[in-house]
Structure formats: structure tokens, C-alpha cells
Amino acid sequence: MSQEEKKQDAKDQLAFATIAAEAGSIKDGANPVSQPIYLSACYRHPSLDQAINFDRLKGFTYSRVEAPNRKVAEETIAKMEEGYQAFAVASGMAAVQLVLSVLKSGDEVVSLDDLYGGDFRYFRHLESHFGIAFKQWNGQKVEDLVSLLTDKTKIVWLETPSNPTMKELDIKKIADAVHNFNEKILVAVDNTFYTPYYQKPLTLGADVVIHSATKYLGGHNDILGGLVVVNDPDLADTYFQYTITVGDTMSNFDSWLLTRSLKTLPIRMDRHTASAQKIAKFLEMANHVEKVLYPGKAGMISFYLDSEAEVERVLNSVKVITFAESLGGAESLITIPYYQTHDDVEAEQRVRLGITTKLLRLSVGLEDPDDLIADLKQALGD
Ligand SMILES: *Cc1c(COP(=O)(O)O)cnc(C)c1O
Predict the structure, then answer these.
(1) 303, 285 contact by CB (below 8 A)
(2) Which of 38, 84, 116, 338 is catalytic?
(3) Residues 74-116: pLDDT tens digits?
(4) Would the keyword Iron be found if you checked this record's keyword annotation (predicted)?
């Protein structure tokens, strides 16, 4: 398919649920309806001529470079995000690294100050090893963000809603302001919490979308994966060369699991939202809960308890909900960001952002919400 045809294809969108349910056709001899898993590291060349004139859009050579199940997962997520091309990599952090791989020494990045904790650890590595400067914006006034931009700024890094304090950003307003300053600056949005079911950053003017596919897209707490989606064919080519070179590409097996999970993304997200709305309401009124942070969509709720003793009690006494450090799966998980996901954020910054030792983060799973409410009720005590 030519680049023009690919773009046209992306525009001829089916409805989201249809893209999801129909994901995974691989045309092979047995005509399976459900996608087979290709556990082959390499692929036969039918002739020298085919090998010399190899077209990577049409065939396969070696799994680091292109792989059938990975291709299906990538095409599905590209359609869901309404992007030109997607890259499936080994983890969300590998996706973060892929996006930042375009930076050179001396470049600058402006990021939101309230991000997934691991991002800051990688930012510090790039700062100390490669002399790349990272500036932080507090997510409030877009003019303040623009005032941090210089002729060295290459990327603006956003996450919305933010993790774990659930602040929402106006992606369109930010992308317009940044591109107005310099259209070459890449606006990158981590879309892990909302997924393309609720938010499609590329359609709002962003240049790059990042996912930890470990979370809602994988949805079953059984794969580790990351995705990057872009609109610009030249940027896609740059990322393709980088990912096949460093070899962080997603395996066929994980790609197969991911595509299987994407089929149910819409109904899972509907259920996560319905249950989380109910649980957020319960928490608002519950004993020992001081404040609830819930943006209204998807399944992530953060809440403050009135004492550290109560925090310990809840984490030690949940029975249906599991005390574990991830999100977006069928099983509800609860975590304490201060010690877990955000341990890599400077202590002073954690306090400033409100990531305290009394803040818990709940990922509402697919269980019956009444069982989850009963579990929280018994854990919170009198
Ligand atoms: C988990 C997470 C990441 C990192 O992804 P991994 O798959 O754990 O490497 C990045 N961003 C957000 C918002 C996350 O929740």
C-alpha cells in the first residue's frame, strides 16, 4: 500500500467497536477467522529476486524487523488512534524511549510535572548522560508552557489525565499554542489512562501518542507492552529505523494477546467507567476518605485517607481488590503511589503534587462493583 493509500485507508474509518471486534485478520492458507500465532523468528524467501527487492509492507524477513502478529496489533492501534503508523514495543518505557530517541545533546524538552514516575527517571538519565534539558510545567496556564519553549525545544510531553492526581489537559489548546510557537516541536501525549476509546490525541493536534499497553489496551494483567502512534510518515520512518535497530520490538506472542484484548476494549472501558463512577460516589461518602480524585471516565480513582494508619489498614485488609502495582486490567488493583509508582519522583515534588503517604490509587477492574464497594467498606472499617 502506498503512503497515500494508507492515509486514505485511515480516513475510511469504521466505527470504533467494529475496528476492535474485527481486529486480527491474517490472510493465510487455512483461512482462519481467529488470528493464528506465528512463533517463527524468521521467514523464508521464495527467491533471490524477492529478497533483493524486499517490500517490508508486503512480507516478512526476521522478527525483530517485521512480524505478522505485531503488524496486526500495530495496524489495529493505528486505526483506533486515527494515526498513520504504530509501533509495538516491549514495554511502555520502551515506547517512552522510542519517542525520545529523536533527541540530540543540547535539545530541550518541556514536560508536565505530573507524569508516570518512571518517565522522570529516564529524563534524569538523558539529562546526565546526553546533556538534554528537561523543564517542567505545572499544567495550569498554557501561556506558562509557551514561556518555557525556546528554539532548542524539540518535544512537549503530556499525560492526561495525569497519574495519579487525575488532572485533565486541553490537548487541542496546548498543541495549537506549541505549534504556533514552532510547528516542528513534537507534542507527545501519553494516552494510557483514557485509551483511544475516550481520547484520540492525534485528532486534537498532537504529533505522537504513547501507551503502556500493559494497562487498558492489554487489559488482563498478562502482558508488558508499549505503543507509539504517529501521523507523519517521515517521523514513522525514523522511529521504524530506531526500533528495529535497538530491537525492543514486541514479540508475536504478546502482539497476539494484545490484539485479542483490543477486540473487547470498548466494552471493557464502558464497564470500567460505569463501575468507577459508582465506586467514586461511594468513596465520596465513605468513612476515613478525605478527598476523591476521579475525572469521570475510565477506571482510575485516587483518594486521600485521613491517616497513615488507615492507609496501612486498607492495603492490608482488601480481599477482592489486590494490593499490586499496575492498572487497567480485569482484576482491581490498589497501590500507594508515594512508595510505588512514583518512588522515582523527587520527594519535594511528590509533596508539591499532592502525592502523599495518605494517597491511594485504585484501578477499578471488571468485577461486580457491589463486591468492590463491599470490599472497600470492610477495609475502611468504622
Ligand atoms: C505504566 C505506565 C507507563 C510505563 O509502562 P510499562 O509498560 O510499565 O513500561 C507509562 N505511562 C503510564 C501512564 C503508565 O501508567
Answers:
(1) no
(2) 116
(3) 999 999 999 999 999 999 999 999 999 999 999 999 999 999 9
(4) no
